[in-house]
Amino acid sequence: MLRYGRGLWLLLFIIFFAIDLFSPASDYPRPTDAFYVNDYAEALMQGTRDTIIVEGEYLYDYSQDLDDGGAQVVVATFAVDDASEMADYDKTELYRAWKIGDDDMGVLIILYVRYDDALEDYELIGTDIEVGYRMEPYLTPTVLGTIVDDSLYNEDYNWLLDVAVAKMHNDILNEIYVDAYGDTAIAFDQDEYFDFLMDYDSPNYGQGTEEMDTWLYVVSPHVTGWDKFSMVLPYLFLFLFGGTMVLGNTGGGGSSGGMGLRRRR
């Protein structure tokens, strides 16, 4: 019986290994353990990171039992040398890989930044925003363009990247709360937010700068049951049969038609 059981596991391993081998490897990191903020460029202050995390978790919990519920707004930063490197990132592929939003009620905001030695601070090079299929009626390209222009590229806010990002994040949340769920908007006060940043004694909900540990990622809700099985199977095979091998990447897959926004400074 054990022999036949091992034979079945061997067959399953071969099938999943072949799928994994011939699937395209992702060039992008996994989401961080914070998920809602993925500050790989380390361009944001911890107060901004924690604000994005807390607001992201609240929106998701708030909308769970509502029509078009399970909304998630995720922010990522990547360091680039110039605007041409923005083409190295596919916002639709990353959105799908990170499985943002239940039933495609998700938003992915990507900020491309460069460190300015003279200013000793980060400057915004460009922006990508991807929205899921079910989020599209609430965040059209026109709406997103207005929000980005009024925040990231508005001289009233972009004197400090964190303030501009917080303004944009707040405005996107307002559109979702008002248009998708019939709630009220919350005004953004840049002076109050700046004071908050300067006085912030970080509870640190998560650094949001390093990708999620492999095993934490496997058990997270961001990986489907099929992907969980395909990721765990090789390790189970090693446990049963021993030996060593090199493991490839496993892919995700949400749904997004690529509608969104791209801006360059």
Give the SSE layout.
Elements: H1 2-22, E1 37-39, H2 46-63, E2 72-79, H3 91-98, E3 106-116, E4 121-131, H4 141-151, H5 161-181, H6 190-199, H7 214-219, H8 225-241, E5 260-264
Parallel strand pairs: 1-2, 2-3
Antiparallel strand pairs: 3-4, 4-5
Helix pairs in contact: 1-8, 2-5, 4-5
Structural summary, described in words:
Helix content is 42%, strand content 14%. By secondary structure, it is of the alpha/beta class. Strands 1-2-3-4-5 form a 5-stranded mixed beta sheet, sandwiched between helices. The chain has 2 domains: 2-26 and 226-241; 37-211, Diaminopimelate Epimerase, Chain A, domain 1, CATH 3.10.310.50. The longest helix is centred in the first third of the chain and has 21 residues, at 2-22. It contains 8 helices and 5 strands. Helix 1 packs across helix 8 (225-241), helix 2 runs parallel beside helix 5 and helix 4 packs antiparallel against helix 5 (161-181). Residues 17-25 and 243-254 have low confidence and may be disordered.
CA-atom Rg in angstroms: 20 Å
Listing every helix as H and every strand as E from the N terminus to the C terminus, the arrangement reads HEHEHEEHHHHHE
User: What structural class do the secondary elements suggest?
Assistant: alpha/beta
Architecture of the largest domain, according to CATH? Answer: Roll
What share of the residues does DSSP label as strand, in percent? 5-15%
Side by side, the strands of the main sheet go 1-2-3-4-5
Largest sheet: 5 strands, mixed
Shape: globular
Unreliable stretches, pLDDT < 50, 5 or more residues? 17-25, 243-254
Helix content: 40-55%
How many domains? 2
Number of strands: 5
